[in-house]
Amino acid sequence: MPKSVTSPLQQKLAAMLVEHRKAAGLRQVDLAEKMGVYQSWVTHMESGQRRIDVVELIELGKVLGFDPVDVVRKLSRK
């Protein structure tokens, strides 16, 4: 099993988060400001270089307007 930070599932999660950010009409820097993190955090998350924990996924859902449960369901079906 590959390390989770480079796994296909992690890459799919990263791609889904990019889609949600773009659908919300936000740039990486905008998301970073709303999350209270550096823009590099967002870059690493979206490139799949950084794992996302459950709490971060919930916060991302609040900021970007998606249900984290739906994201997990979609990931578990793929």
From TrEMBL:
HTH cro/C1-type domain: residues covered: 17-71
Q: What is the lineage of its organism?
A: Bacteria, Pseudomonadati, Pseudomonadota, Alphaproteobacteria, Hyphomicrobiales
Q: Which PROSITE patterns match?
A: HTH_CROC1
Instruction: List the Gene3D superfamilies.
Output: lambda repressor-like DNA-binding domains
Which InterPro entries would you find in this protein's record? Cro/C1-type_HTH, Lambda_DNA-bd_dom_sf
Q: Under which name does UniProt file this protein?
A: Helix-turn-helix transcriptional regulator
